[in-house]
Amino acid sequence: MKTWILTFGLGLIATLQAQENQDASSIWYLKAVVADKGLPKTEESVSVTPMAIRTLEGGNLEVEFSVLVRGQCHNVSTILEKTDQPDKFTAYGGKHVVYIIPSSVEDHYILYSEAKWSRHQTRMAKLMGRDPEVQQEALEDLAKVAEARGLDADSIVIPRQRGACSPESS
């Protein structure tokens, strides 16, 4: 679960710098996600809070979000480091790599991530946007990216949006 939460959240961070030299600091929403393993299959199983993302000096990204695990809220904050490749960021000494792919829908991006945690490797694609509404065209873009990278587009999950992390809002 902890691996999944970190992978899930880190992908959101990279949304900030979708284009070189663009300050994408704002609130972002995870609209849909697909992974090679480990995702709950129902909307009721997955709920997310908005993420605050901030562009730091040098192009690195800071992300802050909250997760509810076993009835407890946990605040998460981490840094994604800019690489020489404009659409690529890393975290945790390169163990987590995130690629940013623009969607055909304005203010939407697909984040493809690969993470290595201990003996586990996870691949995910996430649809991010600046508002919580899911748009069909952007969802279709996510499906295309997922399939191109060997993920099952039929396993896309659309999480329930929550305003804040609290046991009552799960």
UniProtKB/TrEMBL annotation:
One of its GO terms (molecular function) is small molecule binding. It holds the Pfam family Lipocalin. It is found in: Secreted. Keywords: Secreted, Signal. It comes from the Eukaryota. Its main location: secreted. GO terms for cellular component: extracellular space. InterPro entries: Calycin (IPR012674), Lipocalin (IPR002345), Lipocln_cytosolic_FA-bd_dom (IPR000566), von_Ebner_gland (IPR002450). This is von Ebner gland protein 1. The gene is LOC101574432.
